[in-house]
Amino acid sequence: MKQIVIVGTLDTKGEEFKYIKDIIEGEGLETIVVDAGVMGEAYFEPDIERAQVAEAGGESIEKLIEAGDRGHSMEVMSKGTALIVEELLATGKLNGIISLGGSAGTTIATTAMKRLPVGIPKVMVSTLASGNTRPYVGTKDITMIYSVVDILGVNSLSARILANAAFAVSGMVKDQTPELEKQRPLIAATMFGVTTPAVEKAREYLETEGYEVLVFHATGTGGKAMENLIESGFIKGVLDITTTELCDELVGGVLSAGPNRLEAAAKNGIPQIVSTGALDMVNFGPLASVPKEFEERNLYQHNANVTLMRTTASENKKLAEIMAKKLNQTQGPTTLFLPLKGVSMIDAPKKPFYNPEADQILFETLKEKINQQKIKIIEKEMHINDQEYALAMAKELVELIEAKA
Questions:
Q1: For the chain, which ranges sit under pLDDT 50?
Q2: What domains appear along the chain, each with residue ranges and CATH number?
Q3: Is residue 402 classed exposed, middle or buried when 0-12, 13-18 and 19+ CB atoms within 10 A define those classes?
Q4: Which of 24, 76, 370, 388 is the most exposed place for a label (fewest CB within 10 A)?
């Protein structure tokens, strides 16, 4: 019988966890309850007690109770819960996971959920689900459900929300994903609104060649998700057209994918095509949110919530040096494409970010710093969104993948 792990603080929200446990078991599924509470006694008997969780996290439950340090306790119980959940998965005792809570409960449970592979059902009912969920979801497929009211007892409103969550995870676990007619090799591609035409044309070609293309929006989280999937071994080739997240990491924009962006394919020897898509821009929120130090820069209000800032020649030089350093570590076939007529939809004649001098610095520095004994460079007198340019990248990727096979 399939099993759903329930992670919860049974000292403060035991009634609510018992409610969802009963619903799940009523659906013909088994449950494994992990108690991550610290201070009070459990509302009902769990399958894995809080003492076991604390011990897995590196301390005794008695010591945590005596110290009374909520922050430290949460850290220990988060670590312990994550390790226990991983062990349950490894021993075939986890087919899905559900939790509910406020800030502490959400942190503990989603820390564990983020350690599970993509595809394992993960449901989190949280008081924080209507805000910024990025710290809790990260790059994993966690379903966040807003609790609407605080999670304090089972009432006429919370009962419906908790039941929806319990039925949701039960349905996810019970239903079988339909098998596709044919499993096609996966290619990861990166896209931004200003590079969409190129990615769409390349994807169209790659799919006619028998590949399945997963497109990641280069919004920071998108880049991280792609890098994680590459590390996990899902991806056979990478079409990294849009490397703009490097700009935000360098300059301090809001869409950074972190310091390890553009490293997974190189490290794992995955065939990759890399280009300079949207390296002309740094992303900020509303115009008023742009730091004062950038007020005199070339700013473009994409919409009410997004302001773009043109990168300078000196920033482009640094970006090229960063890219070269990362790509020079490659363990697999890599080709760098340079679109000499512009790197984004708004980097073209009469467009707001048109700056051929800054682009030239980018291209020249890349050619200077890239180890061309390991990495092939293809320059095209084209704009990044030209259909011919997109096709050239797609065809080159197919050649790299087939040559390695």
A1: none
A2: 3-174 (3.40.50.12020), 186-404 (3.40.50.12030)
A3: exposed
A4: 388
Q: Output phi, psi for 144, to 5 deg.
A: -100, 130
Contact 377, 367 (CB under 8 A): yes
The tens digit of pLDDT for each residue in 25-69 reads: 999 999 999 999 998 889 999 999 999 999 999 999 999 988 888
Helices 103-113 + 70-90 axis angle, to 10: 30
Report the C-alpha gap between 181 and 107 in whole angstroms: 39
40, 11 Cβ separation under 8 angstroms:
yes
Q: Are 211 and 185 in contact (CB under 8 A)?
A: yes
Please, which residues bridge with residue 337 across strands?
Answer: 378
Buried/exposed 363-385: b ≥16 CB within 10 Å, e otherwise: bebbeebbeeeebeeeebebbbb
Query: How far is residue 71 from each of residues 39, 74, 105, 324, 405, measured CA to CA in Å?
Result: 13, 5, 12, 41, 50
The pLDDT of residue 150 is 82
C-beta separation of 248 from 221 below 8 A: no
- Lookup: tokens for 364: 């020249």
Q: Which two tokens stand for residue 219?
A: 């919004």
The identity of residue 77, as a single letter, is M
363/361 Cα distance (integer angstroms): 6
Phi, psi of 54 (to 5 degrees): -60, -45
Dig out the tokens for 65 from the structure.
Answer: 């109770």
Distance between CA 78 and CA 404 in Å, rounded?
42
Chain centroid, CA 328 distance in Å: 25
Q: What confidence score (pLDDT) does residue 31 get?
A: 97
**Rounded Cα gap, residues 125 and 159, in angstroms:** 12
Is this model's pTM higher than 0.85 or not?
no
Three-class secondary structure of residue 148 per DSSP: coil
Closest by alpha carbon to 37, among 26, 29, 25, 45? 45
Please give the backbone phi and psi of residue 61, each rounded to the nearest 5 degrees, phi first: -65, -35
